Amino acid sequence: MGLADVLLLTGSIVILIWGAAHIAPTRSVVKGFGAISEDNKRIITMEWIAEGLALCFIGVLVLAITFFDGSNDPISRNVIRLSAAMLIIMAVLTQLTGARTPIVAIKLCPVVKTAVAIIFILGTVA
Question: For the whole model, what pTM was predicted?
Answer without folding.
Answer: 0.92
